[in-house]
Amino acid sequence: MFPRLELLLPLIFCLHSHLVALAWDPDPVQDFCIPNAKGGSNNARAQCKNSTEVTPDDFVFSGVKAPGNFSETGLSAKSVNPATFPGLNTLGMSFVRADLQVGGINAPHFHPRATEIAFVVQGKVYSGFVDSTNRVFAKVIEQGEVMVFPRGLVHFQMNVGESTATVFASFNSQNPGVQKIPSTIFGSGINDELLEKAFGLTLEQIGKMRRRFFPGRKG
Ligand SMILES: *[C@@H]1O[C@H](CO)[C@@H](O)[C@H](O)[C@H]1NC(C)=O
Ligand SMILES: *[C@@H]1O[C@H](CO)[C@@H](O)[C@H](O)[C@H]1NC(C)=O
């Protein structure tokens, strides 16, 4: 005899809510947890520094005062996450400073684990995202304005002003993850024939894209 579906439903519902709950960063169980660089001394489970050793400097990060190096597309992005700023650990959020040269772009990409809210510190930035019906929501936003990019949706930015643009953004995950569409598709080693069929490109065109997004591999 198979169990009756009505009896299984509450179980299925519970499993489902459990999975949904896991889609967000877990709630911290202490005020803060600065990772223990020493690896926990005599207690292997002591992953956080003893709070008596924590100082105000553990909660301050000075690495976003200036832009970093600009990429080929005119973007400099400095990520502020627990790897660069351990004070963020377990707090469920992270940050990025992005600078765009005139005409520079932040190529279409998405963050699988976070919604992003971006504030334009200076400049004029064409910003937008695409929803799951392929509708584009895009607009030029200026100094002092914010735009939100819903979790998991492809979004992009381009500096359409006459000077460098600076954007500060925060994420509701300490590890939002990023997948850049061009390199995810052409820089990851997906089978050529599949890409040919998917995009209607010739092998030569695919080779060109590969050389651009996957320089380590002969196209
Ligand atoms: C933290 O350090 C203080 C002072 O050295 C000590 O008394 C306390 O037991 C430590 N706490 C833990 C959880 O190790
Ligand atoms: C920028 O590039 C220089 C020279 O290649 C390098 O020394 C420096 O570490 C880079 N800065 C950042 C923030 O990546």
Automatic annotation (TrEMBL):
Keyword Metal-binding tagged: yes
Compartment list: Secreted, Extracellular space, Apoplast
InterPro entries (alphabetical): Cupin_1 (IPR006045), Germin (IPR001929), Germin_Mn-BS (IPR019780), RmlC-like_jellyroll (IPR014710), RmlC_Cupin_sf (IPR011051)
GO BP term, example: regulation of root development
Protein residues bound to oxalate: N106, H111, E116
An example molecular function term from Gene Ontology annotations: manganese ion binding
Residues annotated as domain Cupin type-1: 62-207
Pfam families named among the record's database cross-references: Cupin_1 (PF00190)
Disulfide linkage: C33-C48
Assigned GO CC terms: apoplast; plasmodesma
The entry's keywords: Apoplast, Disulfide bond, Manganese, Metal-binding, Secreted, Signal
Signal peptide bounds: 1-23
CDD domains: cupin_OxOx (cd02241)
Reactions catalysed, as given in the entry: 2 superoxide + 2 H(+) = H2O2 + O2
Positions that bind Mn(2+): H109, H111, E116, H155
Chief location category: secreted
Subunit record text: Monomer. In the absence of manganese, it forms tetrameric and pentameric forms which show superoxide dismutase activity.
Function summary: May interact with bacterial adhesins thereby protecting the reproductive tissues from microbial attack. Has no oxalate oxidase activity.
Family membership noted in the UniProt record: Belongs to the germin family.
Protein's recorded name: Germin-like protein
